[in-house]
Amino acid sequence: MNDQHTFQYLKQFLTDERLGKIEHFAPESSDFVLPVMEDIFQFRNAAAIVRSVEACGFHKIVAMESENEFNPNLRVTKGAETWVEVEKMPHNLDSLKEIKDRGYKILAVSPEKNATMLPDYDLKEPVALVFGTEKEGVTEEILEFADETLAIPMYGFTRSFNVSVAAAICFYELKQKLIKYGLDYKLSEEKIWKMKVRWAVNSIPSGPQILAKYLKEHKINTHDESAF
């Protein structure tokens, strides 16, 4: 399936304002930093994380679920859920191994295991940031599996931030490092078209049904080169 052709078809259903936003922000999106959440159970935290991810231009989250469903409160996301893809995976090491196989270094956000302080972290390669549950933090087996741990400096009696606050601080700080270091952190052209299709579908009333109809018609006409 050619995502560029699909997006060109879907454009007709978008308002000029929404199309303009998609065209403006898509080239700035990145998957260089991948947030990975461990079984988050408070929907307000889930929503705040989605909002922070989108604001920093990363647009994807992995939610590892076991007891709790990653279900953001839409009042808090302020529409950010339209743009952020949430990939749900089992809450286990196999999921992290799969993420690592995609080319990510696994960073557990925790002060344990001789953690590197966030301002001192030398960002050179794609990283998956693992945030622990609200009460327990990053689980021990994930701490052992992680390539490295990352900690946020604390300057008061309180020894940790709320998980959504910690996530926002990390996303913002790492985005600044990406810009400062001049790294090639933006999405490939192929990924951009795929994301633009998803954004368009999420922006259109009955978007999934319109896409399904288009894909069905495309399948019927797969041998008709003139159709494209």
Summarize it.
The chain has 228 residues and is α/β, with parallel strands linked by helices.
Produce the secondary structure layout.
Blueprint (H helix, E strand, L loop, with lengths): L2 H8 L5 H10 L7 E6 L4 H13 L4 E6 L8 H4 L7 E6 L2 H9 L3 E5 L6 E2 L9 E5 L8 H6 L2 E4 L11 H19 L7 H15 L3 H14 L8
Folded structure, characterized:
With 228 residues, the protein is of the alpha/beta class. The chain has nine helices and seven strands. Strands 3-2-1-6-4-7-5 form a seven-stranded parallel β-sheet, with helices on both faces. The longest helix has 19 residues. The N and C termini lie close together (12 Å).
What characterizes the major β-sheet? 7 strands, parallel
Q: What fraction, in percent, of the residue positions are helical?
A: 40-55%
Radius of gyration equals 19 Å
Shape: globular
Strand fraction: 5-15%
Helix count equals 9
Q: Ends: how far apart?
A: 12 Å
Number of DSSP-assigned strands = 7
Order of helices and strands: HHEHEHEHEEEHEHHH
- Indicate the mean pLDDT: 88
Q: In terms of structural class, how would the helical and strand content be classed? A: alpha/beta
Low-confidence stretches: 220-228
Strand order of the largest sheet: 3-2-1-6-4-7-5
